[in-house]
Amino acid sequence: MSLRIVAFVLAALGGIVLFAVGGAYRNWPLQIAGLALEIGCLYAGWRWFAQHNKPPAIKPAANPAWSMRDQPPPSEPREPPSN
């Protein structure tokens, strides 16, 4: 397991513990620290997920389509549309 994943899990669990202990002892600075740690973990996880789910880059075609301004249209006969 990657060190980054271990750090993420420990930070997430630490944020939950800080928030719970702060609520149990009515200590609002611990609650705010736990909540900030959880929000930071959610943000980091969202960024990681978004970075790994990017669509592949679009590559240009080897044989580009017909350009209307450079060449006349192809002379292949077209079939009429079927109804």
Write the layout of secondary structure elements.
Blueprint (H helix, E strand, L loop, with lengths): L2 H22 L3 H25 L31
Task: Give an overview in words.
With 83 residues, the chain is mostly helical. 57% of the residues lie in helices and 0% in strands. It has helices at residues 3-24, 28-52. The longest helix is centred in the middle third of the chain and has 25 residues, at 28-52.
Q: Give helix % range.
A: 55-70%
Q: Work out the helix count.
A: 2
Structural class: mainly alpha
Radius of gyration: 28 Å
Order of SSEs = HH
Terminus-to-terminus distance: 60 Å
Mean pLDDT, rounded to whole units? 83
Taking the sheet with the most strands, its summary is:
none
Short description:
With about 80 residues, the chain is mainly alpha-helical. The chain has helices at about 5-25, 30-50.
Defining key terms:
single chain; 83 residues; mainly alpha; 2 helices; 57% helix
